Amino acid sequence: MLLSLLFCASLQDNVLNIISQIMDECIPNDRANRDFCVKFPEEIRHDNLAGQLWFGAECLAAGSIIMNREIESIAMRPLAKDLTRTLEEVRSITRDQALRDLNLYTDRMKDALRHFDSLFAEFELR
């Protein structure tokens, strides 16, 4: 079971890294502000933080309580649901676009990436 969870986390990290690279190329000047990250201690900022945040968002969206903090978890649930839904939309649009033309970024794709980046930054901050 643990090996399966680690494998899934690794895949989530890969997906988020690819989406981040696409955003860097597609919407480089429209990325969400993440200046707040400098306030995080070094031990919190690491390469697989995004994958862990995605996992946390999925857990919250599914109704889990994170770290025995029921009030905070309930307050975060709508954002987590929106984030996971938006990520699925980005993955679908990106997959569809890859089947058509790898060198074209449609307005629909750019809008979806901007929305996802904004939600992910907000989730990361909270």
What characteristic shape results from the CA principal axes?
globular
What is the N-to-C order of secondary-structure elements (H for helix, E for strand)? HHHH
- Calculate Rg over CA atoms: 15 Å
Give me the number of helical elements. 4
Assembly type of the chains comes to single chain
Average pLDDT figure: 84
Q: In total, how many domains does the architecture comprise? A: 1
List the helices and strands and how they pair.
Layout: H1 2-26, H2 49-61, H3 70-100, H4 107-125
Organism: Ameca splendens
InterPro entries: LST-2
Protein name: Lateral signaling target protein 2
Description:
The protein has 126 residues and is mostly helical. The chain has one domain (2-125). Helix content is 70%, strand content 0%. It has 4 helices and no strands. The chain has helices spanning 2-26, 49-61, 70-100, 107-125. Helix 1 (2-26) crosses helix 2, helix 2 (49-61) crosses helix 3 (70-100) and helix 3 (70-100) packs antiparallel against helix 4. The protein is globular, with a radius of gyration of 15 Å. The relative contact order is 0.16.
List keywords for this structure.
mainly alpha, single chain, 126 residues, globular
Give a short synopsis of this structure.
This is Lateral signaling target protein 2. The chain is mainly α and 126 residues long. Helices cover 70% and strands 0% of the residues.
